[in-house]
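A brief tutorial aside. Many learners find it easier to grasp structure tokens once they have seen a single protein encoded end to end. The record that follows does exactly this for Molybdenum cofactor guanylyltransferase. Read the sequence first, then the structure, and try to relate runs of similar tokens to stretches of the chain.
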Amino acid sequence: MTAALLAGGQSRRFGSDKALARLGGVTLLECSAASLEGAPHRLLIAPPERSYQLPGWITEPEDRQGEGPLAGLEKALTWAEQFGSGWVALTGVDYPLLTPAVWATLFLHVGEGRLAVATLDAAGHPQPLPALYHTALRPEVTAALDRGERRLRAVLQGPGRILLSRDALGLSSHVWEDADTAADLERLARFPQASVPER
């Protein structure tokens, strides 16, 4: 499994670069990466002007900068293809409470003919992050971008996509919490931070 971490967002709702915001004294960038440290290949997708430091990760920009998270997925799948056909674990810097158990649980549902494994929130809405995407999706993602599609959620439609209820996965609900705003980050500080790396 190849790991890919999206860190190219504008953080407009957050008010500052959320990747460098801190939770328990550790940056969200480090927190979000911690759950994927076991992956043999790890890609941090970030603009070249951002000097993020994440040991053990290769940092590269999107090939289509400014075209949204779907362009980030295209970059991740293209990069992963060099290691052969396989799965990409994709998340963003705003999911700091993820744990290795999340990825292990999602990986239980991969199989022949499957192209994506993602989750449904409590309201039944598909959530494209965090999720697993197969490299076989790359031509479809490229075609969607060429048509002007920018939404990551768009690739969760069609055959081979497995959408799992988060409530049924047996994981603590807090692992799915994200930090879109500074207020969200304050709320997340009240949860156990199982994925925060020790310093």
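Self-check: The first helix runs from residue 28 to 34. If you spotted this yourself, you are ready for the next section.
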